[in-house]
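Hey, I'm writing a tutorial for new members on how sequence and structure tokens pair up, and I'd like a real worked example in the thread rather than a made-up one. If someone can provide the structure for the chain below, I'll link this post from the tutorial.
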Amino acid sequence: QVQLVESGGGLVQAGGSLRLSCAAAGSFLSIDNMGWHRQAPGKRRELVATITSEGTTNYAGSVKGRFTISRDNAKNTVYLQMNSLKPEDTAVYYCNAYARRIGLAMNYWGQGTQVTVSS
């Protein structure tokens, strides 16, 4: 099994910063893509950013230039540095990881961490 444990959410004022972390633990051979998604109340879950095992990144247009995704492969951890936060960034943030195990490869999700940006 693979578990993703997120941390770093909280309450911040508009214009502030937060850093989210997500560590993968359990039994797996390797992790390919990792990423962050978010879901605001009454809205669908949306992609925020992804990163490959080689470090290639992809961002949603709404966060490009403000958020930075990175990862530490040795620690099986992905990070999301969020700067210049806006009230519309308020959401539950979920990390995901595509992990390979013997005979199985699938996407796993964390339980989510709340980010609230006050105006």
